[in-house]
Amino acid sequence: MAAVLVAAMVVVLSVSVAESATVEYQFDVATMNVTRLCGSKSIVVVNGQFPGPTVSAREGDLVVVRVVNKAQYNMSIHWHGVRQLRSGWADGPAYITQCPIQPGQSYVYKFTITGQRGTLWWHAHISWLRATVYGPIVILPKLGVPYPFAAPYKEVPLMFGTCVRPTRWWPVISVRACMNCLSLLVYVRAQANGGRRTRRR
Ligand SMILES: [Cu+2]
């Protein structure tokens, strides 16, 4: 009887391992010139993209993001809304769960998506850098698990950002600036996947 129980547990464990994957990205943080509203400005971005690359994973996946800080500012990345179960050191707030990543240094964030599906976002979690360093997190259901609604024909993440007149572009993001101009940044997920991504089964 005990042998049967052990065998059953091994089967269950191997099935759950087979269903989860490791999703890896590299985020190269650096400054880049960006033009919006007829004005150009040097801002900090990830992988030369603004907004940054989409992190796409399935529920149960292990997400590994290596952040390489090539900018001249201290950096940290927060995975907004992602439950950090036994991985609090991967949450991202600088000076709270980690020291900031200094210029020329890197940090590997590792966390497992547990009990969550839907679209969240990631962003810098230090000083004003969060104004330009951000992007979507898309969490799909496990393979073989349907959406809790009719399957969509197509999915397009929308990122809402703020900008002000070109002469005063992003010097400070304030509530007033947010009210002045709300820019809609739309892009197809496939175009946003600049981060290196591999899946291991
Ligand atoms: Cu946040």
Any descriptors?
201 residues; Immunoglobulin-like; 14% helix; globular; binds copper (II) ion; copper ion binding; Plastocyanin-like domain-containing protein; Cu-oxidase-like_N; CuRO_1_LCC
By DSSP, the count of extended strands is 11
> Which ligands are bound?
copper (II) ion
Shape by Cα distribution? globular
Q: How many separate structural domains?
A: 1
SSE run? HEEEEEEEEEHEHE
> For the record, what CATH class applies?
Mainly Beta
The CATH topology label is Immunoglobulin-like
> What Rg is obtained from the alpha carbons, in whole angstroms?
19 Å
Mean pLDDT: 79
CATH architecture: Sandwich
CATH superfamily: Cupredoxins -  blue copper proteins
- Low-confidence runs of at least 5 consecutive residues: 10-17, 169-201
How far is it from the N-terminal to the C-terminal residue, by CA? 32 Å
Helix content: 10-25%
Structural class: mainly beta
Give the count of helical stretches.
3
- Report the β-strand fraction as a percent range: 35-45%
Q: What characterizes the major β-sheet?
A: 5 strands, mixed
Walk me through the structure.
The protein has 201 residues and is mainly β. The protein has a single domain, classed as Immunoglobulin-like, CATH 2.60.40. It is built from three helices and eleven strands, in the order H-E-E-E-E-E-E-E-E-E-H-E-H-E. Strands 1, 2, 4, 6 and 11 form a five-stranded mixed beta sheet that branches. A hairpin with a 2-residue loop joins strand 1 and strand 2. The longest helix has 18 residues. It is globular and about 45 Å long. The C terminus is likely disordered. It binds copper (II) ion (CU). Copper (II) ion (CU) binds next to strand 5.
